[in-house]
Amino acid sequence: MGRRIEMGFRFDLLVFTLAVLAAPALSDLIISKVDRRIDLTSQIVRITSTLKVENAGSEVVSEVLLSFPEVQAKNLAHLVATTSEGKGKVKSSAVTLPIKVVNPKGMPAALIFYAVSLPKGLGKGDSFTFDVLAVFTHALRPFPEKITQADIQLVVFQDSAHYLTPYIVKVQSLSVKLPDARIESFTKIENTKIQGSEIKYGPYENLPSFSYSPIVAHFESNQPFAVAEELVREIEISHWGNVQITEHYKLVHGGAQSKGEFSRLDFQARPNIRGASAFRNLLARLPPRAHSVYYRDEIGNISTSNLRSDSKKTELLIEPRYPMFGGWKTAFTIGYGLPLKDFLFASEGKRFLNITFGSPMNELIIDNLIVKVVLPEGSTDISVSAPFPIEQSQETKVSHLDIAGRPVAVLQKTNVVPELNQYFQVHYKFNSLSMLREPLMLIVGFFCLFVAGIVCMHVDMSISKSSPSYLARLQWEEVLATIQQVQNIVNRCLTTHDKLEASLRDLSRTGDVQACKATRKSADALLKELSKELKPLLAFLQSSSTAAQILPKVEELVTKEKELQDKLMAKHSTVVDCYEKKTGVRDIESRIALQQQKITALRQEVDNLLDIIDEI
To answer: In this structure, what DSSP letter does residue 33 have?
Structure first.
């Protein structure tokens, strides 16, 4: 397998090697000694190089060039050069040296160059020692790219055993620290040895400029490959004494993709075997006096978290709702409050917030980080100071009791690692009297509410009984009451119709003609009485201008009901006569078939008209 991995990189390495071999050397400086240490114990690759440079030329040198392959530089998240003042036991704290991107003439396009500015120029024969830390993301490639739940995760790392530099190197050595002693394969060249989980190359002497000796390591790494595809971090300042932090994470396992089925039973029984490549929790190191901490997602609060705090630190151990295997994603939110006095200060007539930039999560890679600093309403003259380049913009957030909204400083950076979790400052001007704006708004609002209540209690809001609107309303209510009476009468008529139909069914079952005639007689008397009750109601509606809109439908309803009543009586007489003459059932059905069709249609029309009148 190691042979196949090296063959996979061979073509790219050949092209890169030909490019750098054609580059000229810079002869003014030489590197008398370089010790490199590559840390591969997590998903973030950290390369620390200690360089001792000497000026072999006659001119003073004030800069040292650092070179990285272009394919490696695109994953470079952090680069810093430091030196310690003093010697031996009296060394003071490290001093950071300025670094900038440069494009020296005559250098290969396959390399990216950075220039480190020295504290003072090096004269002929002078030397200077400093450390360089380069931090890379996504530099470990899973191989194989897809694994099952039971498989361990293997990754591949590629670099050079020789220090890639435009200067001549007298002596150099390299050590590669792995997370575990289990190594599938690694490149073996001259002066290579392995000690436990560490591979050592060198020392190598008298190397020419741009010397490049490719090496590949294929090893086990089951460390959490937690990658935040996007993190939106909102820092809201309240001058009433609190800084509220809200962090929205979109997290993915950036390791080898999981394939096949997932068994929760196997995972719980043997998590170290049936889930070695997954991570189950993350640790967030919050500021010491963090309070009101919460951890939730779209579903709600997530109870699988543990908070530990003391006077020096606050640690939040969070566990997602499910174990994170390769390629699996989750989204959640962390929030907490901080004391304002620990992070907000005043200087030269302005206030400034001094707080950390990145995520408190351990060993988390952030592909896209957005930090939003929400300032109090009324803040002006806003400026941001950060120790590294960032994209800046401004927007406005409208919250409760705001008038114009709160200004928001938006900071954005890609490819963020824990080393960038440094302090930055947001400076702004704010008038302390503006703090009274919201309390005054509440006081005035409640005062107006109480005044309105008093006015309502002492003012007669009733409508005058002589006003046109009041009279019109009374007329309409009278019309509605009349229409309701008409509907009730029509419904009683329909009930009487149903009784006549029931008497015909009883006649067909029992043959009792006298009982059927008696029912007809009582129904006929009731329908005549209902008809008399309808006449004054219709007369009122016809005389009222308010009922002009609905009157046609009411008249049509009464007409259709009367027609239905006549048809039903005719059918009843026909059936009774046939039974008295002892006519057969089939003959009776044929005689009343046409009448029954008309009765059914009329009944449907009456029901529809009742519904329409209800809607009006």
So the answer is: E
Instruction: Report residue 243 CA to chain centroid gap.
Output: 22
What sign has the CA pseudo-torsion 294, 297, 298, 300?
A: negative
pTM score, two decimals?
0.69
Q: Compute CA distances 609 → 122, 361, 489, 497, whole Å.
A: 105, 71, 14, 17
Say how far apart CA 533 and CA 540 lie, in whole Å.
12
Average the pLDDT over 21-40 and give the result. Answer: 79
List the single range of 30-44, 81-95, 105-119 with lowest mean pLDDT.
Answer: 81-95
Q: Which of 198, 82, 164 is nearest to 130 (CA)?
A: 82
Beta bridge mates, 233: 247, 371
Half-sphere exposure of 163 (CA within 13 A, CB side): 35
Distance CA 250, CA 231 (A): 6
Give 458-500 as a 3 state SS string. Answer: HCCCCCCCCCHHHHHHHHHHHHHHHHHHHHHHHHHHHHHHHHH
| pLDDT score of 7 more than 50 | no
Residue 86: exposure state from Cβ atoms within 10 A (0-12, 13-18, ≥19): exposed
Radius of gyration of the chain (CA): 45
CA nearest to 503, candidates 436, 569, 560: 569
Half-sphere exposure of 288 (CA within 13 A, CB side): 5
pLDDT digits (tens, 9 = 90+) for 326-380: 999 999 999 999 999 999 999 888 999 999 999 999 999 999 999 999 999 888 9
Q: Which of 253, 226, 227, 223 is nearest to 152 (CA)?
A: 223
361-365-367 Cα angle (round to 5): 125
Distance of CA 347 to the CA centre of its chain: 37
Which phi and psi angles does 127 have, rounded to 5°? -130, 160
Strands (E), 340-379: 344-347, 350-356, 365-374
Both tokens assigned to 62 = 């004030």
Nearest to 365 by CA among 410, 412, 415, 411: 415
Query: Hey, how many other C-beta atoms are within 10 angstroms of the C-beta on 329?
Result: 11
Q: Spell out the residues 6+ positions from residue 61 whose beta carbon is closer than 8 angstroms to its own.
A: 28, 29, 55, 118, 121, 122
Helix (H) or strand (E) holding 221: none
